[in-house]
Amino acid sequence: QSVLTQPPSVSGAPGQRVTISCTGSSSNIGAVYDVHWYQQLPGTAPKLLIYGNNNRPSGVPDRFSGSKSGTSASLAITGLQAEDEADYYCQSYDSSLSGYVFGIGTKVTVL
Amino acid sequence: QVQLVQSGAEVKKPGASVKVSCKASGYTFRSYGISWVRQAPGQGLEWMGWTSGNNDNRNYAQKVQGRVTMTTDTSTSTAYMELRSLRSDDTAVYYCARVSMVQGVTPRLFDSWGQGTLVTVSS
Questions:
Q1: CA of A52: which chain B residue's CA is closest?
Q2: Segment A71-83, tens digit of pLDDT
């Protein structure tokens, strides 16, 4: 069981917008800690997608965006493309556990 | 460019130990920490711990505390993760990841990842 809750799956047609939620608590997202997002394509290592709630590393398309409010964060993908089919993980830090924590992951399916 | 190259797959018996290596290149090794993250088959990511690049600080997840040791060798820019008393539920792909600090952002982030090392624990 992860301390960060994500929906197991979301889906959308090409071109649509999908969002993935990441819900935490007062010891992680609701505290001073930011949220990062990672994309894991099938059979590959995770890749940093969004850092510090809403910042994109160089090379990440602006179709990906993030936000944080209270004890939750969200990742949005606009103009969904077939290549976006992957697992997405949120990550933060938990002061009660004194360590980094990941969400359970959300599988994005492009219909 | 930053690159992390991990050692090959391992098959171990229950109760044995495994040591996975992660060789870094393309950056100043001492300036960044290394975290280890594992992924059981069909499951999500689990953070295991962190060690500083110059090997003077580390922090382990409660779940593996007492069974894991993470070290770095600055002379070869290589990080190591040793897991002892292996159990079947330790079967997973183990990733190393570079830990980066960005001003104004907390916590640190994992901005480069190794290719992963499959460790299978089976009798």
A1: B105
A2: 999 999 999 999 9
